[in-house]
Amino acid sequence: MVHSRARRNRKEKNNNTLTIKEPKTMANLRFEVVAEAFRKKPLEITAPSERPSEYFGKYVFNRAKMYKYLPVGVYEKLTDVIDNGARLDRSIADAVAEGMKRWAEENGVTHYTHWFQPLTEGTAEKHDAFVEHDGKGGMIEEFSGKLLVQQEPDASSFPSGGIRNTFEARGYSAWDPTSPVFIIDDTLCIPTIFISYTGEALDYKAPLLRSLHAVGKAAAEVCRYFYPDVKKVTTNLGWEQEYFLVDESLYSARPDLMLTGRTLMGHDSAKNQQMDDHYFGTIPDRVQAFMKDLEVQALELGIPCKTRHNEVAPNQFELAPIFEECNLAVDHNMLLMSLMKRVARKHGFRVLLHEKPFAGVNGSGKHNNWSLSTDTGILLHGAGKTAEDNLRFVVFIVETLMGVYRHNGLLKASIMSATNAHRLGANEAPPAIISAFLGKHLSDLLEHIENSHKADLFVLQGKKGMQLDIPQIPELMIDNTDRNRTSPFAFTGNRFEFRAVGSEANCASAIIVLNAAVAEALADFKKRVDALIKKGEDKVSAIVDIVREDIKTCKPIHFDGNGYSDEWIEEARRRGLDCETSCPLVFDRYLDADSVRMFETANVMHRNELEARNEVKWETYTKKIQIEARVMGDLSMNHIIPVATHYQSRLAKNVQNMYAIFDQAEAARLTARNVKIIKEIARRTQTIETGVEELVDARKVANKISDERAKAIAYHDTVEPKMKEIRYQIDKLELLVADELWTLPKYRELLFIR
Ligand code: ADP
Ligand code: MG
Question: Engineering a disulfide at 86: which of 80, 308, 481, 507 sits with its beta carbon 3.0 to 4.6 angstroms away?
Fold first, then answer.
């Protein structure tokens, strides 16, 4: 819309003619944007002449570049920090900064920024130029270790849940050397954590790093029961990013998409995803051009893109990289999301990362494939060659389940948001109850261990080591084809796939909780095993005892059935799993005594940080619904009702005309249908009007509440339901009103033009 008008103006100016055109009606504009979108051709992308392996990481200060641009001693100290968690020696910071600057300048970089992840859904950056006064009236390019290591971005407007009001107003960003710096355009981006003056985390990265440390330490200790030489355990994350693309012209004619990221109204398209013809279908040319462009840029930034395909809903797609160390994977996902938005615009698309942009078709998630590995291999990998391998495998599976079981409500809280709430429990994607799917092989295996006597289960055979009567863990399990799409947390061969994560979310939110929960379970496991060993029990026997006990304890979390069925909700309730669906109430789980204890023991977060974050969560929830409600009110009054009454008048005019032409009886017969529609429009617009008034009133009442939690609950209970009622009426009107008058691009246009 914006485009075409601007182009027209330009043309008129160039011709030096001043013709005043009839103002177009909004409906004309809809046809105009539809036609414009339809005509767009794929952008011609010139692919790089090198192979991907050659340009991979081109704009990343990776190992090879560190080696090239840093003095040997500095390189060694820095890699020691990255690989072994050694303390950062401030004395090397200047040399590192100097090397980074040299590399960056060779790539045309003039600015640098601390790049961090505040408690909004995006990333934050504030660019500073390398220039400094040279003391002689001129300027020089400078970048010191001090500037690399720490900054005070005075980012006082980010949500902090009160931490920065009650303590110290300052927020600091501090360099995370474990995630390499990278270049975007003319700017050197330095991944950092963001913390308050008093050390509270104000971001996602700081607690993520603490949780990685916690689970790594706990896992390494348990690992040493089996492999005494294990040095460290790392967490892996492979995310799968789902998204929608919408043509930019159509997008610009949908104020709801622009302001809220989703359509607040819109009748189902007659055809949507019924035929399953989009899933894995041929990728449309314009989309393919976008994907290629995106992939090249992502690879240059070191994001190992691997998979791309059409998703289930029309205009829905997915991109997945190869899994990486978790901290890096999280950064890469944040980076990719912002990159997608930029590249999409270049191709005349808008990317929708919202979890539910369109009612009636699938929403978007971000499966988080999570696993632990040692310096020698993956811990959740089944097909071990030795009895030790098999027992180790069972231990890590069962203790992950223990963590998920004990904190199932909290895990749900970690993925819950105003936007993801549309997806959860909506008969698609994962249900709003966290359970774990194990598949037949693994279920049988756990059952076997649970039911067999210890003496039968294993025998110690002198020098040969132990023999376990654990049924052979088949190679097949690695490629677990028994895939249950309805489970929010599924074992898929060598990893768990946390599927409930929202497409827009920072993966860190879910992973922080998962790591902390598994860290707690492993530490607790070790404590109990050690206690038995101390009492004189043999190590393997002690491990089997405790594992068997835990298999029994965490049984309620294990569910291989259909997660969408009503029976499951009843069953889950009986099992004591968290079944809450109200988003503001789900957030309460963060402040449960068990949760606080878990976070504090693992040193991931402390009570005041958790309280502050919950304030932010409730406030964000309220604001999102508030914005939606306002947009809903505006669209109802400014688009829908005027269009509907306009059509109604047209029909009324026709009725009048008919009476002028035909006799009473004949006219009555001929206009019956129109009269019926006139009445229906009157009824529906009236309901919408009252609905909007009630919506405004409900908001006014809620806005007076000062407690953030209570306010969010009010928005959930009284504001949101009103929007559903209004939408229902609007969608009915869409079917009733003449197509040529309707101003908002329809679902069939938004979802099918590409
Ligand atoms: P799907 O589950 O839809 O088949 P893909 O195979 O495309 O998905 O993606 C699965 C993701 O899981 C990829 O990012 C892949 O790298 C990642 N992955 C594979 N093995 C592991 C593992 N052991 N730990 C973590 N992530 C893994
Ligand atoms: Mg997957």
Answer: 80
Are residues 209 and 171 in contact, defined by beta-carbon separation less than 8 angstroms?
no
CA of 308 to the centre of ligand 2 (A): 12
**Co-location of 590 and 645 in the same domain:** no
Pocket test for ligand 1, best of 234, 324, 369, 482 (most atoms within 8 A of CB): 369
Which ligand 1 atom is at minimum distance from the Cα of 238?
A: 14
Cα-based angle 726, 732, 736 (whole degrees, multiple of 5) = 135
Instruction: For residue 677, name the pLDDT band (cuts at 50, 70, 90).
Output: very high
Task: State how far the Cα of 550 lies from the Cα of 554, in Å rounded to an integer.
Answer: 6
Which residues, 6+ apart, have CB-to-CB distance to 40 below 8 Å?
247, 286, 348
Tell whether 404 and 450 lie within a shared domain. yes
635: domain CATH number? Answer: 1.20.120.1560
Report the first-to-last Cα separation within the chain, whole angstroms. Answer: 17
Are residue 219 and residue 197 in the same domain, yes or no? Answer: no
d(CA 660, CA 658): 5
**H-run or E-run covering 408:** helix 408-415
CA–CA separation, 330 and 560 (whole Å) = 29
List the one residue out of 263, 116, 87 whose CA is nearest residue 201: 116
Give 194's strand partners: 173
Q: CA-CA distance, 623 to 616, in Å (whole number)?
A: 10
Whole-angstrom Cα distance, residue 555 to residue 470? 19
Is 637 a domain residue?
A: yes
Single out the residue in 151, 171, 202 at which a domain terminates.
202
What pLDDT, on the 0 to 100 scale, is given for residue 19?
Answer: 59
Q: Look at the chain and report how many structural domains it folds into.
A: 3
CA distances for 492 relative to 161, 288, 740, angstroms: 37, 29, 50
Grouping H, G, I as helix, E, B as strand and the rest as coil, residue 639 is helix
Q: Each residue of 512-549: pLDDT tens digit?
A: 999 999 999 999 999 999 999 999 998 988 999 999 99
Residues 272 and 389 both lie in one domain: yes
Distance of CA 322 from the midpoint of ligand 1 (Å): 7
